[in-house]
Amino acid sequence: MEKKPFVRIAKRENASYLSAWLIRLLAFVLALILGGIVFMCAGANPISAYKTIIEGSLGKAHRIRQTVKVAIPLLGTAVALAPCFRMKYWNCGAEGQITMGAVGASFFAIYFGAKWPSVLLLPIMGLAGIVFGALWSLLPAIFKARWGTNETLFTLMLNYIAIGIVAWLQGGPWEGMPGSQIIPTFKESAVLPSVLGVHCGWIMVLILMFFMYFYLNFTKHGYEVAVLGESENTARYAGMKVRTIILRTALLSGAISGLVGFMVCSGTDQTLFANVANGVGFTAITIAWLSQLNPFAMLIISMMLAILSKGSSALQSSLSVPASVSGIMTGILLMTLLGCEFFINYRLIFNFKKEVL
Q: Is 324 in contact with 280 (CB distance < 8 Å)?
């Protein structure tokens, strides 16, 4: 007699929208509980810790502005990755594409910042960021489309090359004071203007968010991306030019990432350094997956992570909790929200009946 397993995994059929979000809500509550345990281990009252995080990131107008600045590149990069992931082209190179976009923008800021007015310089910097980011994403796309290489490894390795290029520029041709390993701060004409106390990059990423939603859901290109993601054979049978779709989608993703690089170096940092992307390219991968590639959900998740990031500094100063605890909290939140997707798509079936011999 065949022994039945105690637990079996079965695919959920047509899980309702309400039940899916209920599972996500329970996962968020679980993250708060686990985070509270972490705070207790660090010697802090969990309720006070969460209150401090909210106050430290949203308590005053200038704190809200700082939190928005953190969310801008997260949202922009997640939006950039959406078409690639919909196509099941695993672009892990947003970090490098952001970096190279910043390099392209910084070239004009450094050499023409004192010569050109901002009305001319800033659009050219933005265009340079788009071109550099797009070209950096084109190389692995060509190899993928022509020879079927693994885009995950290819794009991942290009990240480190991009960071190395900036490190060389810092200590080489773009170095300010000899031996400083620092690129000078941009001239005022090369700095993005502020709108409501935050550089205008927040307007650009919101426009990109609406654009990507429309592009993926209401355009022919978006339909082709979805079909190719479901089945390459189906796309070929339907007469779609698979190589063209891969190249076009990778270029779009890299272009938006490069534009984010321009926003970061011109709006937030006002200079260029090797860690200009600051891990945003990797965090945005998780944001894209958690949002189910929905640009509007990306906005919510980006703000949640930005709140955690900015609130960590208040934890350290107010409750003497190490800022690294914020990283643990972020990891717990992402782990639970990602893990809950399993229970949305699958269910556990327990066998409580005892076998009778």
A: no
